[in-house]
Amino acid sequence: MVEQTINLKELGRHNYVINPDYDPQLEALAETISKVRDGLDEEHAEVGEGLSLELDKKVHLENNQVYGYCFRLTKNLRGPVFFIHAAAQLNLTQRNFIYSFHRSRTPKNLPKKFIDLGTNKSGVFFSTKKLKNLSEEYKEASQAYARTQSTLVKQVVGIAATYTPVLESLNDVIAHLDVTLSLAHVACNAPTAYTKPKVVEKGAGNLKFLEARHPCLEVQDDLIFMANDMQMDKGASEFQIIGKTNWITCF
Q: Nearest-5° angle of CA 119, CA 123, CA 126?
């Protein structure tokens, strides 16, 4: 059901949405979003080529929480140090572009094609007119997709809820197997053989341990565990627990 309901292709983008095949309107919106993403990639490639900077290593296309889709220059291209060590490797367009962001913060001195958005420790954020339009289209289409799928989400959640009793039963079965198999594993690998207890009817008989051991303590290195005898007779013996912050003793 999950594979048929959730759009698995979107999981890589951490985007959890309903499969567009469920609704014609979702299909149309999904197609719009796909075209916008193609446009974003094309603009990314064009800007990278224009600056002769490697994509996704020096010029990143990001969906920022504040700016929406924008470009980010890596921090090693941010300041005057870059010009001292690498100016000889840049063409005039690159030098003017980087220089405009860090020597003059006024929009009128920036290259006309680029829009300065801000700078922080992770790098320089900028955009273009085309990228801002595409970012707005993506935002509107994504919001419309979320509104359209809201009813379907409720239906999917309702269907998934019907599996609750089955999953709860499965949980009990797995828990029982976990305890049983863990005990079997410990018993088979214990340094001293385990003894199968003699089980009587509920409420009958007494509790008697001869040379009882602790399953965790006895497997610790450099620890000698002394086996203990214990007998509790119904109606005659007492069981007390004396506890403090970090230890409990039973008598």
A: 60
Chain position carrying tokens 């094609």: 113
The helix/strand/coil state of 120 is: strand
Q: What are the tens digits of pLDDT across the range 45-64?
A: 998 888 788 888 888 999 99
Could you count the other beta carbons within 10 Å of the beta carbon of residue 83?
A: 16
**The 3-state secondary structure of 67-111, one letter per residue:** CEEEEEECHHHCCHHHHHHHHHHCCHHHHHHHHHHHHCCCHHHCC
CA-CA distance, 95 to 243, in Å (whole number)?
73
Phi, psi dihedrals of residue 77, rounded to the nearest 5°: -110, 15
Helices (H), the chain: 2-5, 24-51, 80-86, 92-103, 129-161, 164-189
Is the Cβ–Cβ distance between 99 and 113 less than 8 Å?
Answer: no
Q: pLDDT digit string (tens) for 86-103?
A: 443 445 555 555 555 544
For residue 55, report the phi and psi dihedrals to the nearest 5 degrees. Answer: -70, 145
pLDDT tens digits for 139-187? 999 999 989 888 888 888 888 889 899 999 999 999 999 999 998 988 8
pTM score > 0.70 for this model?
no
